[in-house]
Amino acid sequence: MKYPKALEDLIECFSKLPSVGRKSAERFALHCLMHLDEADVIDFSNAFIGINTDINICPECGNICEGDSCIICKDNSRNHRQILVVEGIKDLFTIEKINNYNGIYHVLNGAISFSKGITINDLNINSLVEKVKNNEADEIILATNATLEGETTARYIKELLNEYNVKITRIAHGLPVGGDLSYADEMTVLKAFEGRREY
Question: 123 Cβ partners below 8 Å, 6+ apart?
Fold first, then answer.
């Protein structure tokens, strides 16, 4: 016996989320059906539509924004010559929470992973190289995760930028090897950031 089509469609939608299998997707869909009233469903639907229509990607750094560029890139009080390179937007928000970094960011949208078929061409790197080429940066801080993919990506970026007159540093990881930056507590991130070194 199959669920009605509308419920099956919702299960399929939930199944597209990371780490959500069929059983979890069924549980989410049934919860929505049985426990959300019409107002909740409308709010839920509007929130999904809103992220598709109201959120853009900042052309300067790759962060999310509601206008033409993100609030970090618009902030003239920040050091626009210091660029911190992160794998994802969640990493950017993790570092922002420590309130200790005053430069700008560059979001790669991933890391090189040959096993997943992610190559350098799939990452947001060209605009970073252009900034360095145009002498728009004094320091590039590589803050990719302490994983094989993160290290591979950091090394590749370092090789790309070696020919230019820019300081390249790598954050010290007070994180376990294989760990993910976005899951670290703020103090661990702060210590890792303070201990960055020439790379």
Answer: 108, 109, 110, 111, 112, 153
Residues 5, 196: Cα–Cα separation, whole Å: 53
Q: What is the pTM of this model?
A: 0.80
User: What is the tens place of the pLDDT at every residue in 58-74?
Assistant: 999 999 999 899 999 99
> What CA–CA distance (Å, rounded) separates 10 from 21?
13
Integer Cα distance of 181 and 179 in angstroms: 7
So what's the pLDDT on residue 187? 65
What is the distance between the alpha carbons of residues 34 and 199, in angstroms, rounded to a whole number?
54
Kindly list the distances between the CA atom of residue 125 and the CA atoms of 102, 158, 161, 162, in Å, as whole numbers in the listed order.
21, 12, 11, 14
| Burial degree of 120 (CB within 10 A; 0-12, 13-18, 19+) | middle
Give the separation between CA 164 and CA 22, rounded to whole angstroms.
49
Reported as a single tens digit per residue, the pLDDT across 140-190 is 999 998 888 998 999 999 999 999 999 999 987 666 667 777 777 776 777
